[in-house]
Design a protein that fits this description.
The protein has 476 residues and is of the alpha+beta class. It has 14 helices and 14 strands. It folds into 2 domains: 317 residues, no CATH class; 134 residues, no CATH class. The strands form 3 sheets. Strands 1, 2, 3, 4, 5, 6, 9, 10, 11 and 12 form a 10-stranded mixed beta sheet that branches. Strands 7-8 form a two-stranded antiparallel ribbon. The longest helix has 24 residues. The chain is globular, with a radius of gyration of 25 Å.
């Protein structure tokens, strides 16, 4: 096992070396390595001071100041760091096949007070209701075996974007203005395409899919999508569409140009359409292996035209897929998606691709529980993004190790130990370390998603300390 630890330590050193040149000065190399190392150690609270205590127990104060400056003030680019992480990790992900999807999602972090950048009363997935929190939007690349966030940005509510005093205190860059979450997501996708990433199907939940501008933006970028939509989505039955513009009688005036509906010819909701389908329209499809059996459910796929506001348009919406999930025994359909994949796409591919969005739920679970994504205690824009980028960098290394180390060489959870801390050490604030976020209440937790969409993936790699001062790297 010691040989394995030595190999992983060497791999970690090589991995960090690949990242150093994108963070600027050489004197940032040590805090970069220590911060990522601390995030991967099983420390209860992964804010700056506990990380300093575990990576430099003999000089906690000096290390604390070094890490605090590195994450909160040093002017390195979190986007550049994430780009380098992607370059290092994507080839390993693609050992199992090409990237199949770009996944858009957001995640929330409960916060007290009003001074942490972007904090406002808004929906927080971690607790499943409106509350004081920060929300960040991310873009991930994924295939069936692995995924990695490659872009991450805080959503800045209008109350923050329009408040110059709070913006100044949190050092929000001047170029950051209010954008909706779908608009932020489109910027991330456009940047990924401009960076030369091979296009993939864009996946997003209904929080993004219900936004017609978001869907139109993806099409304008030349990308196919499978996005969640609401049961109230207005659609035409297959083969139907809006009526042509009404002909103008007489010779005066401009001709009518807008599509029409009539009392006898009108669209219906996606839910109403689903409920009108005959039993033979539904097929039971399995999309991946679960813990004890294949995960499967009933689906129907219809090639049709969305009808949203098409009576205000001069041309009907293009035809696309409406995919519907209605589990056996449920009183009504469970989920709906729109997809611009080609008309000859098999329903099996529609289902397996739509369900690939579960990977981001796994990412957020591991980033929060294992790597302290929500533990940053600073209030500024730069520190918030630097901490998240370093969490993702650490996550990238663990993904690389999970791909490189055979399962037989992995350690068990029982072997995990907490690293030693200086005698008498306690973090500032509460006399006891704050608990990690409660993922049982998190809508992104893989354990809470619909039971038909779950499996039991291998646990994320972790680093374990030895009993001496030298840190040994092991995997779970």
């Amino acid at each position: 096992m010691d040989g394995l630890n030595t190999e992983i330590e060497a791999a970690f050193g090589d991995y960090v070396e690949k990242l150093i040149d994108v963070i600027g000065h050489a004197d940032r190399a040590e805090p970069l390595k220590d911060y990522c190392l601390g995030l991967m150690l099983p420390v209860e609270r992964k804010s700056v001071e506990p990380l300093a205590a575990v990576t430099a127990p003999a000089r906690v104060s000096a290390k604390h100041q070094s890490l605090l400056h590195f994450v909160g003030q040093a002017p390195w680019s979190d986007a550049a760091l994430l780009g380098r992480v992607r370059e290092a990790v994507q080839p390993l992900i693609e050992r199992h096949g090409p990237v199949e999807a770009w996944i858009i999602d957001d995640t929330g972090f409960p916060k007290k007070g009003r001074h942490s950048v972007g904090v406002a009363r808004q929906y927080c997935g971690q607790i499943g209701k409106q509350d004081n929190c920060q929300v960040a939007v991310s873009l991930s690349i994924a295939n069936a075996e692995a995924s990695l966030p490659i872009a991450y940005r805080l959503y800045l509510p209008e109350s923050w974007a329009d408040d110059p005093i709070r913006r100044a205190k949190a050092k929000v860059p001047q170029e950051i203005v209010f954008q909706t979450k779908p608009a932020i997501a489109l910027d991330q996708i456009a940047a990924a395409k401009a960076a030369g990433l091979a296009p993939a199907v864009v996946l997003a939940d209904a929080g993004y899919g219900v936004d017609g501008d978001f869907r139109a933006g993806l099409t304008a970028l030349g990308l196919d999508y499978i996005v969640g939509v609401s049961p109230t989505l207005s659609v035409w039955r297959p083969g139907q569409g809006p009526l042509p513009p009404e002909p103008r009688t007489g010779s005066k005036g401009r001709p009518f140009t807008r599509m029409r509906r009539s009392p006898e010819h009108h669209p219906l909701s996606a839910k109403a359409l689903a409920q009108s389908l005959s039993p033979d329209a539904w097929r039971t499809i399995a999309w991946r292996e679960g813990t004890n059996a294949d995960l499967s459910s009933r689906f129907a796929a219809l090639w049709l035209r969305p009808a949203s506001k098409d009576n205000q348009l001069t041309q009907p919406h293009a035809e696309q897929w409406l995919l519907i999930e209605w589990p056996q025994g449920d009183a009504e359909p469970l989920k709906y998606w729109l997809s611009t994949l080609p008309a000859d796409t098999p329903i099996e591919r529609l289902v397996t691709t739509a369900k690939l969005r579960w990977r981001i739920e796994r990412d957020y679970q591991e980033l929060k529980q294992e790597l302290g994504l929500g533990h940053y205690e600073g209030r500024g824009w730069r520190g918030f993004h630097h901490h998240a980028s370093l969490c993702i960098a650490a996550y990238g290394f663990l993904i690389a190790q999970r791909e490189a180390i055979p399962p037989s060489a992995q350690a068990t959870p029982q072997n995990r130990q907490k690293p030693p801390l200086p005698k008498g050490y306690r973090p500032r604030g509460s006399p006891d370390p704050a608990p990690a976020p409660c993922d049982q209440l998190d809508r992104h937790s893989a354990d809470l998603a619909h039971p038909r969409s779950q499996s039991n993936p291998a646990a994320m790699s972790l680093l374990l300390p030895s009993n001496d001062t030298k840190t040994q790297l092991m995997t779970q």
